[in-house]
């Protein structure tokens, strides 16, 4: 989720859902609404990677709002009101904190994750207490690092855990204190995601970390530039979509305006993709209008995505054309050419992140 200079990561697998961090205190409402909008009512796991506000700020609101399975938080304590609020919410719900033990594996639907850190009982700063997990689903893998720094990265390497992952959530918002070359080489990701606030006062992400990623040809997604970053794994391959965050000065209906019932994917399909003329035709094969707000059309090869704006409706039985390049259509995507003429699969992804049609 794009929570600015903070982390909040929702993971879904089948009927299971989990949350890793919940943004700053001020992000609580957004995070809760985002999770609700995905049709989630229960979080099987909630991980507060470490007790800094930019990771656990919204956690008390999340704990109060949803049915919670297991809460995993490091033994490190903070003396802040934010941390106290989280403890109170946990207590009021009659929940217990599970301390992370490196090497422990948890099942998560058809996926599973392993705790890789922390590996020591005490550190100088809170960041190195971060709970680090590696999630695997089929042949795909994701490494989530919280704000773990070089010390913890070294400990993880020394422990000999399997680190190779397709997607790396870059540690500590891209700070130079993390993502050492040794760690990065061991993870050897194809994609990196940096959760970072635009114009933040820390200078995150560090240019040297960005260079390290670029030198290795790793594709980078950043919440400050891309908004919310959505990675979808089918167990064999991972596709990405982004959902730009409305800037505060533009009046855009906020998330609560969305219908409480999950949007219907009722028969909307990609009818054709004209690669040469840059026109995609969607068809609503059902007898009801379908709201496409927040849906995504993805060019799989180029990994380019178009997010349908709020209020986009495809009428019952109607078609809708999406134009790029020089083409004309009902919706203009961009002046750039999107589709690779040598073949380029297209995916239509609904607002809940489900691929509803492929072409
Ligand atoms: Zn942080």
Short description:
One of its GO terms (molecular function) is hydrolase activity. Helices cover 18% and strands 32% of the residues.
Key terms:
single chain; binds zinc ion; Immunoglobulin-like; globular; seven-stranded mixed beta sheet; 2 domains
Task: Tell me what the structure shows.
The chain has 359 residues and is an alpha/beta fold. Helix content is 18%, strand content 32%. It has eight helices and 24 strands. Strands 6-7-8-9-10-11-12 form a seven-stranded mixed sheet. The protein has a five-stranded mixed sheet with strand order 1-2-3-4-5. A four-stranded mixed sheet has the order 15-16-21-22, with no helix packed on it. The structure holds zinc ion. Residues 7, 52, 54-55, 147, 172-173 line the site of zinc ion. Keywords: Hydrolase. Pfam families: Lactamase_B, LTD.
């Amino acid at each position: 989720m794009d929570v600015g200079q903070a982390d909040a990561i929702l993971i879904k697998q089948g009927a299971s859902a989990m949350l890793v961090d919940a943004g700053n205190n001020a992000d609580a409402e957004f995070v809760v609404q985002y999770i609700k909008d995905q049709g989630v009512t229960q979080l099987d796991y909630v991980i507060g990677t470490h007790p800094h506000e930019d990771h656990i700020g919204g956690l008390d609101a999340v704990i109060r709002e949803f049915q919670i399975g297991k809460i995993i938080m490091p033994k490190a304590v903070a003396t802040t009101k934010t941390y106290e609020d989280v403890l109170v919410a946990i207590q009021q719900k009659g929940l217990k904190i599970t301390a992370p033990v490196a090497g422990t594996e948890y099942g998560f639907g058809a996926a599973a994750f392993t705790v890789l850190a922390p590996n020591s009982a005490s550190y100088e700063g809170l960041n190195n207490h971060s709970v680090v997990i590696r999630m695997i689903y089929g042949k795909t893998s994701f490494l989530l690092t919280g704000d773990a720094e070089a010390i913890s990265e070294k400990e993880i390497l020394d422990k000999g855990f399997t680190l190779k992952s397709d997607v790396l959530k870059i540690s500590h918002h891209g700070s130079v204190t993390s993502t050492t070359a040794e760690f990065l080489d061991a993870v050897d990701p194809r994609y990196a995601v940096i959760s970072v606030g635009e114009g933040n006062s820390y200078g995150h992400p560090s240019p040297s970390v960005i260079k390290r990623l670029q030198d290795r040809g790793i594709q980078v997604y950043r919440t400050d530039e891309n908004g919310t970053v959505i990675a979808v794994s089918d167990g064999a391959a991972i596709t990405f979509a982004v959902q730009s965050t409305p800037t505060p000065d533009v009046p855009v209906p906020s998330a609560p305006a969305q219908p409480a019932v999950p949007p219907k994917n009722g028969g909307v399909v990609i009818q054709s993709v004209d690669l040469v003329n840059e026109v995609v035709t969607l068809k609503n094969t059902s007898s009801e209008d379908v709201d496409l707000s927040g849906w995504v059309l993805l060019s799989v090869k180029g990994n380019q995505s178009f997010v349908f704006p709020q209020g986009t409706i495809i009428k019952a039985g109607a078609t809708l054309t999406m134009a790029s390049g020089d083409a004309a259509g009902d919706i203009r995507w961009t002046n750039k050419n999107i589709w690779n003429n040598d073949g380029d699969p297209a995916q239509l992804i609904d607002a809940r992140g489900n691929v509803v049609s492929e072409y």
